């Protein structure tokens, strides 16, 4: 075990044995880039109660993907600096990701350079997982994905951070192909500009482009499981979802890829596509989701073309315009546009498999994720312990 005490002294000689104490100077001077060498303070065998030499600042730690990444970092003996905004109780459960004293919380604002500098000053790794699915009065897509990402990369570079990991999005392009909305997805366009901004400020940054990510508390499976996404028992999809191909990735696989990139210095300056092992038509996937939830044709399930349903289109518009906080069921036009964009995977760009990640198949994970949405579960109409023949899995695209 190693203890680090921040004082005004220089870094003194490490003590051998089980307990090591190092005195570290907390103030940098103009002639110094870093106050101390973190790799010299490694202790232990690499588990949760060790220190592996990584001090990671994780922006977006309180989000869906952030919780998985923080858990992986803490289990490997990293020290975590977790910036947050809003209520500190929203992120307090991340305290148990690491050992005692290894997780530090600090408030910040994405537009406040000083608060960002404070949480990057002693880190050698910065991970940017900040993203916004819809625009608000306070933050546009560009404010979050471009200006915010640029500022984080700029401050990280100036603070002497060794590795910068940035989360973008699959299908991010300068001019995304339009499916429903005129001009295409503003989210995907801003993600592309964000990549360029990060690389301008931090050329050695590693960028991940994830497809739709599924897992506990996701916005993919639960989006289709929500009652607000359908019309009673009918599900509207653009062109019935038969012209859209998806390649979803499990959130744990994405977290594993980020951890693998941190350990491999050769990943610096590269872009990785985070996609699952198989490609499916959206129609095939959604039909399978409802079969898993035991909401099949006998229940009344029917998938139809959204283009001919003005009632549902009005619902999407009103949900977006009249929302107070989160859109009900995460339903808004930007999300509807993105769900019908086909995932394009470029053969020349490496994927998670190139980082040594063994990808999880949807057929092995999705039934567990959708158990809480099983029809009649909470009314006593079904017993999950009873023998049940699982539905046929979806047919992947050849």
Automatic annotation (TrEMBL):
Listed under GO cellular component are: mitochondrion
A Gene Ontology biological process noted in the UniProt record is: ubiquinone biosynthetic process
Instruction: Identify the domain of life.
Output: Eukaryota
Show where the NAD-dependent epimerase/dehydratase domain sits. 57-272
Return any one Pfam family short name: Epimerase
Q: Name one GO molecular function term.
A: protein-containing complex binding
The UniProt subunit note reads as follows: Complex I is composed of 45 different subunits. This a component of the hydrophobic protein fraction. Interacts with BLOC1S1. Interacts with SLC2A4. Interacts with CLOCK. Interacts with RAB5IF.
Instruction: Give the protein family.
Output: Belongs to the complex I NDUFA9 subunit family.
Protein name according to UniProt? NADH dehydrogenase [ubiquinone] 1 alpha subcomplex subunit 9, mitochondrial
Q: Which organism is it from?
A: Tribolium castaneum (Red flour beetle)
